[in-house]
C-alpha cells in the first residue's frame, strides 16, 4: 500500500538525517504562487553558484516568500538561514543542495525504470508523447513543462511517488558541464539524445562542444543502461549499449501525408508497424522513431503502443493549428532555433491555402556570435511566404521583413493586423519563448480574430 503522503515524516527524517521532522508532505514547491496545501516549500536562493550558469546575484530569494507559501498552505519549509515561521522547518546548509538531496533519495527509494531525455529541439514534445503512450501501460511519472535545469530536474525527481513504475525526465543545458551531473542525479536506465542543433549555443565554442555536452547524458546511465541516439551521432557516442534511430538505424520511420495527418511505417527489430498520427513534419516523424526506440529500450512491446499513437497531440505552442474566422493560425510560439524556424517557414510556404501565407517571426535567443547570420539566413527560406513581420533585436539587421520590424510584440498593432486578414489566410507565429509565448500573443491574436465581427 502506498504512503498517505508523497514523503512521510520517516522518509524525510532519513533523507536529511534529522530526527525532529514530525509530519509528512503531499508535494514539493519552489514557488509561493503555486504552493498547494500540504506542500514542502523549498526556499531557493535563486543563485546556484559557480556550478551552473543560470543564476544571478539579483535573483529572488525564496526565503523572502516563506510567509506567502505558508499562507498558501505549505505544511513545512526547507531553509538555509534563520527564519520566523509557523510551520516546521528543515534546516540545510544550502537549499539547492537540499533539493538535490531529496531528488537523489527519491531516485534511490523507487524501483521505477527511468528515461532521461535531452536534445536541442522537441524534447518536451517527446516526453509528453512518451507519457501519453506509456501511462495506459504503467504508473508513469514525468517532469512537467520544461523543468529540465539545475532546479527543475531535482524538483521533478522529488515529486516522483515511490510506487511509480516509470519516470520520464527532461535534461537541458545552457552552459557546458550541466547535463552530466543532472544525468548522474537521474540515473536513467535509458538516455535519449533526440538531436543536436544550433540552439542555446551562445555559451558553447561551437557544435562539437555542444554535441559533446548532449552526449554526456550517458555519464549517468546505470551499468546496464541503453543510450539512444540518431544514426548520425552513433560514431561519436562511446557507449557499450546503444540503440540508433533514423535511416539505417535500429528504428526507422517513414511518413506519408494523409488527409488528417501522417501515415507512418515504423521498422523496428525486423518488424514493420503501421500507424497514423494527427500531425505532419519530417522532424516529428523522426521524433516518433525516437519514441519507439525508447519504448524498446525500456522493454515495452512496440505493438502495444500502436493504439495510443493515433491519439498523440502536439503540446501547446509547438505547431498547433487553429481555425478561427476562416483563418488558419499556426502556433509555434513556444520556442525557436535556426533549424526549427527554417522547417516552420518551409512548411508554411508549402501549405495549400487559397489566400496569403503570413509569417510573424520572433528573434532566436542564445545563439552567441552566430546570431546575426542565423537570423539573416531565414530570408533564404521564404519560398511561398507572402508576408513577413519580424520581432526582436535579433532580426534588427535582417532585410527581409517585407511588412515591418518591431523590437517587441507589444509594439505590434494587433487590431490593425487582424483587420487586414481575410478568410483563407494562414498565419505562422514562431519565435523564442520570451517573444510571443510569455505574452500570450497567440491567445490575443485568435481572440481578436474571433471578436472582430
Domain unit count: 3
In the CATH hierarchy, what is the architecture of the largest domain at level 2? 3-Layer(aba) Sandwich
The end-to-end span amounts to: 57 Å
Question: Radius of gyration over alpha carbons?
Answer: 23 Å
What is the CATH topology assignment of the largest domain?
A: UDP-N-acetylmuramoyl-L-alanine:D-glutamate ligase
Number of helices: 13
- What is the assembly state of the chains in this entry? single chain
Q: Which of globular, elongated, flat, extended, rod-shaped describes the shape? A: globular
CATH class wording of the largest domain: Alpha Beta
Please state the structural category: alpha/beta
Strand tally: 19
* Proportion of helical residues: 25-40%
Mean pLDDT: 91
β-strand amount: 15-25%
Short recap of the structure:
The chain has 453 residues and is an alpha/beta fold. It contains 13 helices and 19 strands. It has helices at residues 9-16, 66-71, 95-109, 123-134, 152-158, 179-186, 207-215, 282-298, 302-309, 338-350, 371-377, 414-420, 441-450, and strands at 27-29, 39-42, 76-79, 89-91, 113-118, 140-142, 166-170, 190-193, 226-230, 242-245, 251-257, 262-268, 271-277, 320-324, 327-332, 357-362, 387-391, 404-406, 426-430.
